[in-house]
């Protein structure tokens, strides 16, 4: 058996936008983690023995004041200028204006998008007939994803996540990269984007109370981090995680690098929600929590009167990867088809759909920094931290400026034309531009993942 096991069974394809969760609700209320509960070392770079042990056993560590809060001022200024803030007439000096602002957002918003759907034209509305998709098919992420969660309105500003200055101020900040190398170990892939700023607004008094929605993201992320750009008090939307959940879930995955859930994973998830008391990350602007990438997490309970503003981030080591995690829109009444881990879209003609039709919208989860499967399909390690650093080796700045996926594949993502800063996002491209047809419904996508290494 080879160590990479590329002959391992191909798991069923999954929608890249789907999270892993089960129906059972969380039983326990979160414990707010304030600085008095941190192990020694939270205010310094590096990892103390107590912090190493906490990461190994619980799957997280919090660093206080890792980024000076002045660093975020330009992005606060930009935040108030963005279309959702303007539409809702949010006023930095009037906290009443921050309550449940989504009442003022248009139901279908397509703010800050370039005119480049399938290479030309506007991003389609839900009613519009499309050449490459069933009417009403989802279009993928938008630069401003605006939703109403149980009680709170949430604005996921993904468009700022590919702003180079924002990435330098957050995910690629030298102190953050230092901690990523201290934990994950090099070579670290230089972050080129993050998921952006997620803002959770105070709820209106007659809206339902916030509830936890525990899940894990089943992406290729090896380490997840959340940075506050504004202070977050207890019960004010603090990012909430289930300590020990990565340890419990890890051993149930079929693979070490690509999360592949099994029946045991479902049982493990139920066990976590029934038995683990979650923690709620509380802190000041510039505080950062680092977690194992397979941590079970949730938006926090928000009963406060401030806007919770956090940057959601993903970190990875440099690895050999395979193709992008694509999904193809359903067409001619057919179902959505997701690309398999071996790079194949298998399209049937069950619904009268023509499998040879390559004029079909494909998209990826463009909010992610790592969008390609890891090439190796090896099984999990006996020690899940086998390859991690966890403070064992000194940090030497082993960060590699791997090109971002949108450059490797020549895909549009960044704001262009008249799109203002904070906008942009990847539209659909035709299946035939990313894959070749081999007959019998088999489309094989091209990988350019590792060309830059050779
Ligand atoms: Fe998530």
Q: Secondary-structure blueprint of this entry?
A:
Blueprint: E1 31-33, H1 49-58, E2 60-63, H2 73-81, H3 83-87, E3 144-148, E4 153-157, H4 164-169, H5 174-183, E5 188-189, E6 196-200, E7 223-228, E8 240-241, H6 245-250, H7 263-275, E9 279-281, E10 288-292, E11 297-298, E12 308-315, E13 321-324, E14 327-328, E15 337-338, E16 344-346, E17 361-363, E18 372-374, E19 399-400, H8 405-408, E20 429-430, H9 431-434, E21 435-437, E22 442-445
Parallel strand pairs: 1-9, 5-19
Antiparallel strand pairs: 2-10, 3-4, 4-6, 6-12, 7-10, 7-12, 8-9, 8-11, 13-18, 14-15, 14-17, 16-22, 17-20, 21-22
Bound molecules: fe (ii) ion (FE2).
What share of the residues lie within helices?
Answer: 10-25%
CATH architecture of the domain at 31-75 and 141-315: Sandwich
Beginning-to-end CA distance, first to last residue: 26 Å
What ligands are attached or bound here?
Answer: fe (ii) ion
* CATH uppermost class of the domain at 31-75 and 141-315: Mainly Beta
Q: How many helical elements?
A: 9
Largest β sheet strand count, sense and barrel closure: 7 strands, antiparallel
- Taking all Cα atoms into account, the compactness measure Rg is 22 Å
- Overall mean pLDDT stands at 95
* Relevant CATH superfamily of the domain at 31-75 and 141-315: q2cbj1_9rhob like domain
Largest sheet, order of strands side by side?
Answer: 2-10-7-12-6-4-3
Low-confidence stretches: none
* Overall geometry: globular
Helix-strand category: alpha+beta
- What percent strand? 15-25%
CATH topological fold name of the domain at 31-75 and 141-315: Jelly Rolls
